[in-house]
Recover the amino acids of this structure.
């Protein structure tokens, strides 16, 4: 039997880190990349974990992977059809993709389900592509009247 220090290294597995220390590997990654990997693995094991879906959709969108974020938002809305925040986030993804009809429909659904952070809605940069749409402005007026 070979001396323990002379044993060959085990074959790398799909969960192994690249050569070097784990700390070196982690130091080269951004927090966002770390979270995308972490939540991706978590969702692979538990695909209906709603809170992880929500965070991962936001992370993917921040990384510029808006279509991937949209897919997770759709999953979340299917899991939680009465969650106003899930519909709001879906509206944001649609707005980022300039799919205004779908964005406005999802936004209206969020409000119907109880979304009430109208001040945030008015400032949310994800909704910028909707700002010149008369339907969005009408929805804002409707929101302001509900808030009064």
């Amino acid at each position: 039997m070979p001396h323990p220090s002379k044993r060959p290294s085990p074959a790398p597995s799909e969960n192994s880190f690249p050569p070097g220390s784990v700390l070196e590997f982690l130091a080269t990654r951004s927090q966002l990349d770390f979270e995308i990997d972490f939540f991706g693995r978590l969702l692979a094991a538990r695909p209906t974990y709603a809170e992880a879906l929500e965070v991962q959709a936001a992370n993917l969108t921040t990384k510029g992977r808006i279509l991937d974020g949209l897919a997770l938002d759709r999953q979340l809305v299917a899991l939680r059809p009465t969650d106003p925040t899930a519909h709001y986030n879906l509206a944001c993804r649609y707005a980022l993709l300039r799919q205004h009809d779908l964005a406005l429909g999802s936004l209206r659904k969020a409000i119907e389900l109880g979304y009430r952070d109208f001040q945030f809605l008015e400032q949310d940069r994800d909704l910028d592509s909707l700002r010149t749409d008369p339907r969005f402005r009408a929805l804002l007026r409707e929101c302001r009247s509900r808030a009064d």
Remarks:
- Residues 1-14 have pLDDT under 50 and may be disordered.
- The CA atoms of residues 43 and 115 lie 26 Å apart.
- The chain has one domain: 21-147.
